[in-house]
Design a protein that fits this description.
This protein is of the alpha/beta class and 931 residues long. Among the domains are: 4-179, Rossmann fold; 299-515, P-loop containing nucleotide triphosphate hydrolases (Rossmann fold); 532-734, Rossmann fold, CATH 3.40.50.300. The chain is 34% helix and 14% strand. The strands form 4 sheets. A 7-stranded parallel beta sheet has the order 12-13-11-14-15-10-16. It has a 7-stranded parallel beta sheet with strand order 19-20-18-21-22-17-23, sandwiched between helices. The protein has a 6-stranded mixed beta sheet with strand order 2-3-1-4-5-6, sandwiched between helices. Helix 16 (573-588) crosses helix 22 (760-778). It is globular, with a radius of gyration of 35 Å. Residues 547-720 form the Helicase C-terminal domain.
Length: 931
């Protein structure tokens, strides 16, 4: 077995990994059987060839050693194509190199390799340095099994495991004939004669964008050459000439690495070059749960005023208490500080509303308007303020002398001041709005406060309200008598370490701690309702949007169960706005122009029956958000697109599905799914994850004891087959009906792209949504960067999920191509946006020439005048809005940082004014004396 004729096949093998892990040393040991202690770093790509005998077969290995440095990464993706195997190397003495496998190398390999079933081998190198080991063998083995890879530990220095690694990889490749077997093309005979099978003389070798054109004359066949003794009619001769000319113009694509003919992909670009979806082990986990309802004791036995019990039965239809209510109400009635931890949807609001009203109605002399504020309830969002206020109002119908009112940012401050002057007994507010009134409302007196309640305390701390809460507590302490004390009640579903530190500061050390599941501590297991079914799906970027549409069709086109309410969580306001317009059009149809000239279906109408879509986001006014929340609560069938403003505390009736299109921290995940399966009702949740985010599932399973079931994108996309009649493909005609789920998905995405790119306004909305998504992904804290790192994103695939055909430039609002063609190499602002036809949008760019630049003002400007928006009439309003600490419009201004230099200047100016004043007074005195 020495000649090339006896070689079974030629295989392309990649060696990838971080710089310094020993990739080149492994290759040198395998090919030359030597080790170089001072081997230089690989620049770009290194290449070696070696023959290997495996199982009585000889194969030729073309081994590509890629550079691990970041500056060379743009060179290596082109060498990934056509590889049958890959060796991923990490250093067992460097945990960082092990972490980067998941963050970068696996996703890069799956993205740029054109073979979906490429064989991967994970190699842990440098096991000869056992004393410095940071990654155990078990960790490597688990990681390899998780990603369906072979695994071995090796040492290039001692030869251990090097030969075995390559042999096992090649064996696995040989056992997968589809990777390397050459399929002979089947040639169909022509209707005329053998001349149609003439060999063409034009061949091309292609590697990415590299084309090598080799031209030669076509080889004539016997029948193609006209001789004296042959008789060929003119028609046959013309056909032969056209056939030969056509074949001369054909291109045969060859793989530079293997010399094979590259077949054109049959799959849609939507399904090509997607990263491999990792397999997730669905662990059997006993999820921590708590009983919603307590003992079967009657509501009449509760030690509160009879009017409250009667109101609970009539207004709330309650006949028995939940577990948290049964344990919290007696504890709060004792007057001691209380901390309550219980799952979302367990009835925590009534757990403090009932005892608060009971204790207030029992105060002597009786509480009236003139008594002023007696209780303060602090919550994080405007929606939760309104919801809590409505609960208080229902229970206070029997105690009309007790007055309750909400205080929220965005509402008229003068109207709130007027209500405060008239007298309010229960204030329900965000911390920021209450601090605003403490500073600006003289009629607000907190000297009679007896109850201070913190609902969703951990969320308020996350939003930066810690200083505001301390200010409220200090103000109460200053205004009330030193001999008096007030009761503090704190409630949360997800206690954190920061919350525990805050509790130690503001609450009594003897506070009663109530945890329905177990002992109260920051590391305690977070509970979820028993009736909640959690699911996840791992979807490549390009398929995310069509998978979302398919899943919504699965929910609302389900026969017999089409009555559903869905909360769809997205990351930012721009993403909510973009998806609201697109989903409304695709599901319910384009109301403006839904029928084309030929009468064919133009776009949308995928649902059998229309569904109401609403949106709730942070940049809406208070009135708009209240109206949307109220309308969605009354619906029996609808979709609410929202940001995290709807993740905490909101009790929306009959929500059946929670869809998290953009994931966030596990704590927010738990609060989001808590909007369904409330008070024993049935609910389901689904979270969308990218392939590089797969470890998020393991985090929920291992750390938070969540039980999730996986569903594949293929199962979801099968739903589109029910709508294939409505997904007519836009190719040569509009009468082609898709026959497979892939064709349906491709047609749906084609419709989507046509709609987005059909209007400059929609293109701009898609761009803003794309840029907003990139900013959201880059904003994750360092704690979660190993899962959500912006470098793991494939920008082109993300842009395609928004229907964009050009990748937007993240430095401004224009695509890279448009910036280069229209504005030159340097980015410029305030330029018109080009349409797909390379024509300037007339609305965006008026035909009149731009006005001359304004004259330069040489006068000295104040600090405010030098701001970029100072020349606009709304400048001061905008500057004031920027001072708000959150999107919820709390009204609390950010405390400015002290600057020593600024303080010294102010002090100097103050002294100078005093000296000038005293000099002026002395001068006037001398003048009077002289007179």
């Amino acid at each position: 077995m020495s000649g090339d004729d006896e070689i079974l096949t030629t295989l392309k093998i990649l060696i990838i990994g971080e710089s310094g892990v020993g990739k080149s040393s492994l290759l040198l040991r395998f090919t030359d059987d030597r080790f170089d202690q001072e081997m230089a770093a690989t620049i770009g790509v290194d290449f070696k060839v070696k023959q290997l005998d495996v199982d009585d077969n000889r194969v030729k290995l073309a081994i590509w050693d890629t550079a691990g440095q970041e500056r060379f990464r743009t060179l290596t993706p082109g060498y990934y194509r056509g590889a049958q195997g890959a060796i991923l190397v990490y250093d067992v003495c460097s945990r960082e190199s092990f972490r980067h496998l998941d963050r970068l190398w696996i996703s890069e390999l799956d993205t740029f390799s054109n073979k979906q079933d490429i064989i991967k081998m994970l190699v842990g190198n440098k096991i000869d340095q056992e004393a410095n080991r940071e990654v155990t063998r078990d960790e490597g083995d688990r990681y390899a099994r998780k990603h369906s890879m072979l695994f071995i530990e090796a040492s290039a220095r001692t030869r251990q495991g090097v030969q075995t690694a390559f042999e096992e990889l090649v064996k696995k490749i040989i056992q997968t004939p589809s990777l390397w077997e050459k399929k002979e093309p089947t040639i169909q005979p022509d209707d005329h004669d053998e001349s149609s099978r003439a060999t063409t003389g034009c061949s091309y070798m292609e590697d990415d964008n590299l084309l090598l054109n080799i031209t030669s004359e076509p080889l004539p066949t016997k029948k193609a050459v006209k001789r004296k003794h042959d008789t060929v009619d003119e028609k046959t001769s013309q056909n032969l000439e056209s056939t030969a000319k056509k074949k001369r113009n054909e291109r045969v694509k060859l793989d530079l690495c293997q010399g094979k003919e590259m077949k054109s992909p049959k799959r849609s670009s939507l399904f090509a070059n997607n990263p491999t979806i990792p397999e997730i082990d669905e662990k059997v986990i006993e999820t921590a749960t708590e009983e919603i309802f307590g003992s079967a004791s009657s509501l009449d036995q509760m030690p509160v005023h009879p009017h409250i019990i009667s109101c609970l039965k009539q207004k709330f239809n309650i006949t028995r208490l939940t577990n948290v209510q049964e344990k919290s109400i007696p504890a709060i009635l004792t007057g001691e500080d209380v901390i309550v931890k219980s799952q979302t949807g367990s009835g925590k609001t009534l757990a403090y509303v009932i005892p608060t009203i009971h204790l207030m109605q029992a105060i002597e002399p009786s509480v009236r308007r003139e008594s002023g504020p007696i209780a303060i309830v602090l919550v994080p969002t405007k929606e939760l303020v309104q919801q809590t206020y409505e609960v208080f109002q229902k229970l206070l119908t029997s105690f009309v002398r007790i007055v309750c009112s909400p205080l929220v940012g965005g509402s008229n401050r003068n109207h709130e001041k007027k209500r405060l002057r008239r007298g309010l007994n229960i204030l329900i507010s965000t911390p920021g709005r209450l601090c605003d009134h403490i500073d600006n409302t003289q009629s607000l007196s907190l000297k009679n406060i007896q109850f201070l309640i913190f609902d969703e305390a951990d969320k308020m701390l996350d939003m930066g309200f810690a200083d505001a809460i301390k200010k409220i507590i200090e103000t109460i302490g200053k205004q009330m008598d030193p001999d008096k004390r007030f009761q503090r009640v704190l409630l949360s579903a997800t206690p954190t370490t920061a919350l525990s530190h805050f509790v130690d500061i503001i609450l009594n050390k003897k506070a009663l701690r109530i945890d329905i599941s177990e002992e109260f501590n920051p590391e305690s297991v977070i509970t979820v309702p028993k009736t909640l079914k959690q699911m996840f799906t791992i979807v490549p970027s390009k398929l995310r949007f069509v998978t979302l549409i398919a899943f919504l069709l699965k929910i609302f086109n389900n026969k017999g169960k089409s009555e559903a309410k869905v909360l769809l969580f997205l990351a930012t306001n721009d993403l909510v706005h973009f998806h609201y317009e697109i989903l409304n059009t695709m599901l319910n149809g384009d109301k403006e122009d839904d029928i084309d000239e030929e009468g064919d279906l133009q776009f949308g109408h995928l649902l059998n029956e229309p569904v109401k879509l609403l949106r709730l986001q942070g940049d809406m006014t208070h009135q708009e958000r209240t109206s949307v929340f109220s309308e969605f609560s009354k619906l029996s069938r609808g979709i609410l697109l929202c940001t995290n403003v709807a993740a905490r505390g909101l009790d929306v009736p009959s929500v059946t599905w929670i869809i998290q299109y953009h994931p966030t921290s596990p704590i927010d995940y738990i609060h989001r799914i808590g909007r369904t399966a409330r008070l024993g009702s049935i609910g389901q949740s689904l979270i969308f994850l990218l392939p590089n985010e797969a470890e998020y599932v393991a985090t929920l399973q291992d750390k938070y004891k969540m039980s999730l079931k996986g569903i594949t994108p293929d199962d979801v996309l099968e739903t589109l087959m029910n709508s294939c009649e409505k997904l007519k493909q836009h190719f040569e005609t509009r009468t082609v009906i898709p026959k497979t789920a892939e064709q349906c998905a491709s047609s749906l995405h084609h419709h989507f792209e046509e709609y987005v790119n059909g209007s400059p306004v929609r293109i701009e909305q898609a761009r803003q949504a794309y840029l907003s998504f990139i900013r959201y992904y880059a904003s994750f804290s360092r704690e979660w960067k190993y899962l959500f790192h912006v470098k793991n994103l494939h920008r082109g695939h993300i842009a395609k999920s928004f229907g964009l055909k050009e990748l937007p430039d993240e430095s401004n609002n224009h695509t890279i191509k448009e910036r280069k063609e229209t504005f030159g190499s340097k980015p410029k602002v305030n330029k018109p946006i080009k349409t797909n036809d390379d024509e300037i949008d007339e609305e965006a760019a008026p035909s009149t020439p731009p006005p001359p630049p304004p004259p330069v003002n040489t006068e000295k400007k104040s600090l405010f005048d030098r701001l970029p928006f100072a020349n606009k009439p709304v400048a001061r309003t905008r500057f004031r809005n920027f001072s708000h600490i959150s999107e919820f419009g709390s009204g609390l201004e950010v405390t400015s940082k002290s600057h020593k230099k600024k303080d010294k200047i102010s002090e100097f100016l103050e002294k100078k004014r005093e000296r000038n004043t005293s000099k002026h007074q002395i001068g006037r005195k001398k003048t009077r004396e002289n007179k």
